[in-house]
Amino acid sequence: MAAVPAPPETDTMPKLKTRKSALKRIKQTGTGKFRRYQGGKRHLMTGKRASRKRRLSGSAEVTSADHRRVAAALPYGGR
Question: What pLDDT, in 10s, does the model give residues 8-67?
Fold first, then answer.
């Protein structure tokens, strides 16, 4: 029986996996910052002030404390 030759060795690093849950929730801006959507809008909206509902409608920037974790979860940026 003939021996099967080994595949050639490569010096490339393995690909990094993107966390799909973070990809669905967070987007990266053109300057490299991350934007996320506000929580607290799914139910019980009738008891909340109109100004609070307007404030929750927009997106917010990810804080600097969470930036490194988000960047690790999205190694290739958020689309």
Answer: 777 888 899 999 999 999 999 999 999 999 999 999 999 999 999 999 999 999 999 999
Strand pairing report for 59-61 and 34-37? antiparallel
What are the extents of the domains in the chain?
20-39+47-73
Task: Flag whether the pTM goes above 0.85.
Answer: no
Alpha carbons 64 and 73: distance in angstroms, whole number? 15
CA 8 – CA 23 distance, rounded (Å) = 34
